[in-house]
Q: What sequence folds into this?
């Protein structure tokens, strides 16, 4: 008399399990599709840029060596040399890292290890808000405050310079470096700190000899992300760089980085001129990949 309800119950469980397995299968396929779309988007962007950028050297016979090491960029005369822009981009990136990384790292250490909770709750959101400010506003700030300051107090004829770019880029990378580094430092187990203090190390010694090395991978990631922000920035740099096509020999020289060149001329470029701008994008992409590779190698060597 009791077997029919049991059979109905088993049938109901079977249908429920089947529905659950179908839902899980669909969910996993949806996640896979999203991951593939991300990879496909990257491949399409890189492939398109490399295809358009390599065309003038393969089909038109332009010299890649002259493109990289040429000092004249005059599209009307078929002169496409980006060496001054490469040097400007390197100087601006290195300069911003020299200023931004120590400030960002020390801020992250202060917020995660030293600051009282009340202070950290005020400073941390304020730093994170910097990431939400549009890039063009950083450029306007630099143009209205930093450029006149350099012009008046350093006696420059033109305040738009490499130094102005370095200062603005250093400020722009701070929220990225501080946020990621702080999260990484907070993730270090408390036992590391307790063990170091128990052995007689000071609090500052523990931070720099135990906590920071333990969070090295996260700190390196923070530097890489900040580096990407500095290299790829365009709108802010356009306003404060001065856009001079010269090889900078001092911090007070006006410059035109690679990103600025692409943004300024892509709107009206056509033919070989446009393809050379895509080639500039290839150089910029390669530049970023090389720097990331070097940082990864340095981090791996330090870990060993």
A:
């Amino acid at each position: 008399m009791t077997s029919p309800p049991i059979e109905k119950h088993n049938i109901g469980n079977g249908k429920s399990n089947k529905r659950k397995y179908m839902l899980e299968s669909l969910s996993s396929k949806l996640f896979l599709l999203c991951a593939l779309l991300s990879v496909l988007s990257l491949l399409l962007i890189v492939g398109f840029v490399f295809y358009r950028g390599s065309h003038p050297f393969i089909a038109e016979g332009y010299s890649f060596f002259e493109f990289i090491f040429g000092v004249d960029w005059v599209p009307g005369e078929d002169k496409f040399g980006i060496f001054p822009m490469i040097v400007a981009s390197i100087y601006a990136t290195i300069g911003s890292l020299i200023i931004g990384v120590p400030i960002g790292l020390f801020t992250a250490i202060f917020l995660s290890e030293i600051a009282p909770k009340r202070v950290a709750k005020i400073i941390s959101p304020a730093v994170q808000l910097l990431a939400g400010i549009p890039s063009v506003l950083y450029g306007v700030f630099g143009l209205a405050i930093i450029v006149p300051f350099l012009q008046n107090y350093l006696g420059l004829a033109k305040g738009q310079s490499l130094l102005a770019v370095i200062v603005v880029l250093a400020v722009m990378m701070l929220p990225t470096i501080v946020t990621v580094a702080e999260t990484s430092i907070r993730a270090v187990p408390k036992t590391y700190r307790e063990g170091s203090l128990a052995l007689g190390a000071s609090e500052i010694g523990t931070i720099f000899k135990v906590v920071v090395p333990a969070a090295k991978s996260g700190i390196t990631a923070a530097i890489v992300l900040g580096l990407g922000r500095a290299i790829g920035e365009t709108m802010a740099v356009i306003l404060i760089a001065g856009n001079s096509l010269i090889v900078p020999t001092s911090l007070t020289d006006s410059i035109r980085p690679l990103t600025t060149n692409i943004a300024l001329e892509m709107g009206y470029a056509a033919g070989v001129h446009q393809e050379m701008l895509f080639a500039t994008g290839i150089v910029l992409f390669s530049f970023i990949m090389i720097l990331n590779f070097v940082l990864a190698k340095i981090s791996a060597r330090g870990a060993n």
